[in-house]
Amino acid sequence: MSTSSPLLSRRSFGRIAAGIAGAAGTGALAACSARGGTPSADTPLRIMAINHVWSQAVRRRKKEFEERIGRRVSMTLLTADQLTSSYNVKLNASGTDVDVMMVRALQDQLVFSHNSWLADLTDRVEGDAHFDWQDFQKAPRDASVTAGQVLSVPVVTERPVLYYRRDLVESIGGPPRTLEALMAGADELAARKKGFYGYVGRGQRNGAVSQWSSFLYSHGGDFVVRGKSGIGSAEALAAYEYYGKLLARTGPPGATNMSLEQAMPIFAQGKAAFYIDADAIYSSFLDPKISTVRESVGFAPFPAGPAGAVPHNIASWSLGISTFSRLRDDAWEFIKWAAGPEMSTTLQSEGIPGARASVWADPKTLAAFPADLAEAMRVNAARGRGYDRPRVLQVGRARDIVGRPLVAGILGQSVPPVARDADAEFADFLVRDNRHKES
């Protein structure tokens, strides 16, 4: 669900940040000058987070944590773009006014690690038996590790789910279990009614890549294979052509301009038979204020392709500790509390999908979700791969390159020449990106 945002390396951003920090005046200087001192008891623990249902739920409960540690907690909720901008300015200036950071492990963590902005949590997560690091699902847990160090703890996870109209699929044998059946079903249902679409999904060049990843894996491909570009492989080409054909033949006009925000309302308003996107948005289809399909929407696991059903299972948001924090011990106490087994159980019982395997195995927490959705989420998590985009420093640029053949397919253009060109560009990009990692 999270969108890409450009993040610059500490060196390249330094000149810009210096200007912004200078304009900030004495506040930034005071933060830097105080860095070496011991924080007083009235210094708040400062948490920066995305404005998300998880963050909102935790903020409502922060008094409980404040009483536990005897320190006030300041929790700022921002949009993704605002959060990225704040991190760039504050952390390039080595500011001490951020303690706990809510981050996207797959979008931000490599560059944050490169810039030395995240504290190593390895000893903390592995040394606390009650916290039980091994209880976190393997895919999100693996994404928390960079260069052998645990730099974040996953708190919100997501997988793709097949949303479908129960009232329509009965005539075609139920929800499709394979991508082949999805194509056939979307074709048939799209042909029955003018202005009605068989399938709707993201088609925007950059934004579609994360959802297309599951189609890529299920065709047997990957973004990077043995350190080299994998988007020119026969498997990737088949995934590009499949996805392009699905939207070109059965989707709405203007699909190449559609992100989550444009695609979701089409299904919610009853104008499409099938839709694949993040399971975290399911409640939108049950809300009578925005959905006309609340009585007919169904949920199913990601359909199987030639290589089986291989969806992504990712940590969409995680918690880390700033290396410049002067309250690292209290920051870790917050992570232990907010991502611990008790809070994870409580929040998932409210319908917020977490990252702990034990919580997913608890029938009480799954009761918060529609039964078929809970089963789809469980199945997808067991099959899932822990990333939905290339794992590189410059994620936004990589998604732009990878997404180009997607657009060509949706527009009905010949995909092979565009994929060959994108493959060559991505191969060159990977060489340059790896150089940045080493600099």
UniProtKB/TrEMBL annotation:
<dbReference type="Pfam" id="PF01547">
    <property type="entry name" value="SBP_bac_1"/>
</dbReference>
<dbReference type="InterPro" id="IPR006311">
    <property type="entry name" value="TAT_signal"/>
</dbReference>
<dbReference type="InterPro" id="IPR050490">
    <property type="entry name" value="Bact_solute-bd_prot1"/>
</dbReference>
<protein>
    <submittedName>
        <fullName>Sugar ABC transporter substrate-binding protein</fullName>
    </submittedName>
</protein>
<dbReference type="InterPro" id="IPR006059">
    <property type="entry name" value="SBP"/>
</dbReference>
